[in-house]
Design a protein that fits this description.
alpha+beta, two-stranded antiparallel ribbon, 2 helices
Length: 119
C-alpha cells in the first residue's frame, strides 16, 4: 500500500484506518517520493491527482473513486469498517505534466507505480 494514501497501515489487505488522498507526487532531492496534501501546497512539477473522466455527471467523486463508498468514501477516503472483510478498489487518474527525456520519464513512472502498488 502506498505511503501516499495510507496513514498507519502498510498492508493493502488490512486497511482499518482512514486513507489520506494526495494532490501531487514529487521527487525529493534524494530520489524518495513526497506526497503533497492539499492544492495550496502543490508545486505543479510532479504527478497530479487529476479529474476522473465523467466525474461531473455524478458529482460523487472527482480525483479518488471507491468501488464501495460505504466502506471507503469517495474523495475523502474515510474508512468505515464493514462487518466482514470486504474488497475495495480505489481509482484515480494521475497526470504527469513535465517534459523530460523518455528514459527518465519511464524510470520515474515505474518507481511511482511500484510505490502505489505497495511493492
Amino acid at each position: 500500500m502506498s505511503t501516499g494514501t495510507v496513514s498507519r497501515t502498510t498492508d493493502k489487505t488490512k486497511v482499518t484506518s482512514d486513507l489520506y488522498p494526495f494532490a501531487e507526487i514529487c521527487k525529493n532531492e534524494d530520489g524518495t517520493l513526497k506526497y503533497v496534501r492539499g492544492t495550496v501546497n502543490m508545486t505543479f512539477d510532479g504527478i497530479e491527482a487529476d479529474d476522473i473522466p465523467g466525474w461531473l455527471d455524478t458529482e460523487k467523486y472527482r480525483c479518488f473513486r471507491s468501488s464501495r463508498p460505504s466502506v471507503i468514501e469517495n474523495e475523502l477516503l474515510r474508512v468505515h469498517q464493514p462487518e466482514y472483510n470486504t474488497t475495495v478498489t480505489l481509482d484515480s487518474v494521475l497526470t504527469y505534466t513535465i517534459y523530460v527525456h523518455r528514459d527518465d520519464y519511464d524510470r520515474a513512472f515505474a518507481a511511482i507505480q511500484s510505490s502505489l502498488r505497495g511493492k
